[in-house]
Structure formats: C-alpha cells, structure tokens
Amino acid sequence: MAVDPRGRDLKDFLESDDGGPVVMLNLLRFKPGGRESYDRYAAAVAERFLPRVGGEILYAGDGRTALVAEDGQAWDAVLIVKYPSREAFSRMVADPEYQQVTRLRTEALEEAVLQPTSPWG
C-alpha cells in the first residue's frame, strides 16, 4: 500500500507546477496504534514546517461511516493543506529537519492518498 511519495512522483508533481497555490488532499488509514505517532508528526508539521513555507491546514477531521464507497475505501482521517506553490511543498519535504520527523508519518500509516488539487475556474 502507498504511504510515502516516491522520487518519480515528486518529479511529476513539480513538472506539472502552474506556479499557483496547491491544495493537498490527505486521506489517511492508520495502522493499529498508529494515530499517536501521526499526531506527533502532525503537531511538528503544523508548528514548525508549515510556517516556514507559508502553508496552512484548511481542515483536519476524522473519517466516519462512508456514504458512497466500496469495501475498504473508507478513511480514518482527512486533512486538507494549502501551500503557496508546489515548490514550497517540495522545499518542506526536502528540509533535513522535516526528514527526521517524517518517519513518524511512515510508521503511523497503513495507507495514504496525497492528492494535489487546483481550484476550478
């Protein structure tokens, strides 16, 4: 199951940069007991790394019973995070200090979707 972006994923992400803001949809499925580890990761990102690159959390919430989904498509949590650019996101994930805490995310998650979005119109 996918959890972390791969090198090619990041390259494609940057190559499709239109120079504007990007809103990242995070769909998260935790390993048993993984929520605590993810909470420590999320606190570090919110307190230290997002301010450095001008990012902001627009929404964070727990998943509930899905209204429309196949078996296995429900998610434990959803985050929506806005970055001023794809380059800003890339700078954050390349930061050596960030690299030290991202292991908490990897340890916590069974599966994830990290979907960049752009506004309509």
From TrEMBL:
Signal peptide region: none
Under Gene3D superfamilies, the record lists: 3.30.70.100
Annotated ranges, domain DUF1330:
35-112
Q: Which InterPro entries match?
A: Dimeric_a/b-barrel, DUF1330
Superkingdom of the source species: Bacteria
* PANTHER family, A to Z: DUF1330 DOMAIN-CONTAINING PROTEIN (PTHR40257:SF1), PTHR40257
Q: What is this protein called?
A: DUF1330 domain-containing protein
Native source species: Nocardioides panacisoli
